[in-house]
Amino acid sequence: xxxxxxxxxxxxxxxxxxxxxxxxxxxxxxxxxxxxxxxxxxxxxxxxxxxxxxxxxxxxxxxxxxxxxxxxxxxxxxxxxxxxxxxxxxxxxxxxxxxxxxxxxxxxxxxxxxxxxxxxxxxxxxxxxxxxxxxxxxxxxxxxxxxxxxxxxxxxxxxxxxxxxxxxxxxxxxxxxxxxxxxxxxxxxxxxxxxxxxxxxxxxxxxxxxxxxxxx
Amino acid sequence: xxxxxxxxxxxxxxxxxxxxxxxxxxxxxxxxxxxxxxxxxxxxxxxxxxxxxxxxxxxxxxxxxxxxxxxxxxxxxxxxxxxxxxxxxxxxxxxxxxxxxxxxxxxxxxxxxxxxxxxxxxxxxxxxxxxxxxxxxxxxxxxxxxxxxxxxxxxxxxxxxxxxxxxxxxxxxxxxxxxxxxxxxxxxxxxxxxxxxxxxxxxxxxxxxxxxxxxx
Lengths: 216, 216
Fold this sequence. Notes:
Shape of chain A: globular
Largest interface: A-B, 77 and 77 residues
Structural class of chain A: alpha+beta
Strand order of the largest sheet of chain A: 2-3-1-4-8-5-7-6
Radius of gyration of chain A: 18 Å
Oligomer: homodimer
Order of helices and strands of chain A: EHEEHEHEHEEHE
CATH topology of chain A: Alpha-Beta Plaits
Helix content of chain A: 25-40%
Number of domains of chain A: 1
Largest sheet of chain A: 8 strands, antiparallel
CATH class of chain A: Alpha Beta
C-alpha cells in the first residue's frame, strides 16, 4: 500500500498556513507580509485585462508566483501593498464589473524566509503612477487574529477606525462593508496591516473589492 | 460634533463577526451555520448566469439576503450546504470561466438567533437535481479556528483528510490547493463543516472554487 505524505502543522515548527514548511518555521520573525489575490473582471475580455494589468504593474520589490487560482506577492509590507494596489488599479476599466479577492497575512507560525524578496529601500514603484486615480469602490473585510482568546477586540479596533475615517457602510454577518474612494481603501488596508503587524503574532485579513457592480 | 456609533466587539456578549449583534450574543449555541458567497462568471453575460442560477436554486430551507457584494445563506448546516452547491452547479456553463468565493462560518461569539431559518427536516431540496452533475474543479481552501492556541492541529487534520480522499494537489502559502470532481469537493466541504462544527466553538472556512480556467 502506498505510504501517504501527510502534513504535520500541529507540531512545533510546522506550518499551519499550508505552505508545507515543516522544518524552518520562523513565524513573524521573518518579517514577511504576503498577499494572495485573484482578479475577476466579469467580461469576455477578462484574459486581456488581467494580462495587461500584470504587465503594467511593477513587481521588482516583491517575490511573486502565479497559479491557476491566484497570484501571490511576498516581501515587505509596503511593497506588497504597493504592488497589489498597482495591479488592481491597472485592471480597472470604466463600466466593467470586476472583483478582487485578496488575502493579506503575516506571522504564520511555520512561515519560512524563502519565497520572498525584502527590498532594502522604501521607494514605492507603482504609487507615482496611480496616486491620482480615483473611482468608487465597495468592499467587504474580515480580520482573523489567530491563536488568542481576545481576538474580538482587535476586530473592533479596525472596524472602529473605519468608522472614524467615514468609510464604514455597515456591519453584516461574517464581514464589515466599506464604501469609499479607491485611494481611501488602500490607505485603510495599509493601516490594518500596520496595526496587525505590530499587535498580533499571526493574522489574516481578507478583503474583497467590487467596482462597477450592476447591483445598486 | 457628531457622536459616532462605534462597535463593541471586544465586550462580553458582543459580536466579532461584524453582524452588529451587541446584546443577544449566543455564539455556537445558536446552531446556525452561515455561508456568505459571490459568484464571478467571467463573461459579458454574467448577470444572466447569476440570476438564472439564483432563480433555479431552492432556498426554502435557509434564510437568505443578497447585497451588492455577496449573498448569504443561514440555517442548518446541511441545508446551507445544499443551497450553495445548488447555486454553484446551476451557474456552471460549459467553457465559461467562473469562480465562487465562499465563507462558511459557525459559532461567532456574538451570533444571534435571528436572520436564520432552521428547517425541521433533513430532506435536501437541491441535491436530487444536481447529484449526477460532474465537472472538474480547482479549489483553494483556508481554515481559521478562532480563539485557541493550538489551531494548527485542526488545520492539519482537514488537510490530511483531503490527502486521504485523493483530492489534495498541494500546499501553498496561506492556502491548500485541491483538484477533483465537483461532487467530491462538496462532500469534502460537508466533512469540514461537520468536523469543525463539532470540535471548534468558532471557525471560518474559506473556499474559492474555479472552473474552466484558461490557465493550465
